[in-house]
Amino acid sequence: MADFSFGKHCRLQSAHEYSRVFADTQVKVACPELLIIASSNELGRPRLGLVIAKKHVKLASQRNRLKRLIRESFRLRQQHLPALDIVVLARKGIASMDNPAVTRTLEKQWNRLCKRTLESQDRTETKKC
Q1: Which of 35, 46, 49, 55 could share a disulfide with 89, CB 3.0–4.6 Å?
Q2: What pLDDT, on a 0 to 100 scale, did the predictor assign at position 8?
Q3: Is-contact 108 29, C-beta < 8 A?
Q4: Whole-angstrom distance, CA of residue 66 vs CA of residue 81
Q5: What's the CATH code of the domain at 99?
Q6: How does pLDDT run across 86-105, given as a tens digit for each residue?
Q7: Going by C-beta distance under 8 Å and a sequence separation of 6 or more, which residues neighbour residue 81?
Q8: Is residue 73 part of a domain?
């Protein structure tokens, strides 16, 4: 049975973990409202970190709503994601989107992330040969 929990083992928790992802970005997926960056980890499961800046999303209630939506989308999708440390950054304009639009955008970005990860793994394996 699949584990759909979102415990501490699914989160980036320290500033060191975030800075490692920013310094060693291997995959980047962007749209006007979101930027997702990721780097591989050795844990065998994906982990999520969120950066929802007050500069782009003014109201705390909107920031919290976006965090809930992103966490829920990740929680349901984590079984299909590769072993990556993922940071989702909110951009200007995401606060005006309604919940179904944010969910659709996230689904597209998770799919693109999986596809780009596979492409980058294929390129590195080709270089090794």
Answers
A1: 35
A2: 75
A3: no
A4: 20
A5: 3.30.230.10
A6: 999 999 989 999 999 999 99
A7: 46, 74, 110, 113, 114
A8: yes
Query: What is the per-residue pLDDT across 25-54, written as a single tens digit (0 to 9) for each?
Result: 889 999 999 999 999 888 888 999 999 999
Alpha carbons within 13 A on the beta-carbon side of 117: 20
- The answer to the question of residue 71 being in a domain is yes
Query: Chain-centre distance of CA 25, in angstroms?
Result: 12
Structure tokens at 58: 């003014």
Measured distance CA(50)–CA(34) in Å, rounded: 11
How many structural domains does the chain have? 1
Q: Which amino acid is at 63?
A: R
Q: Side chain identity at 38, as an amino acid letter?
A: A
Sequence letter at residue 76 = L
Domain extent, residue 23, equals 8-128
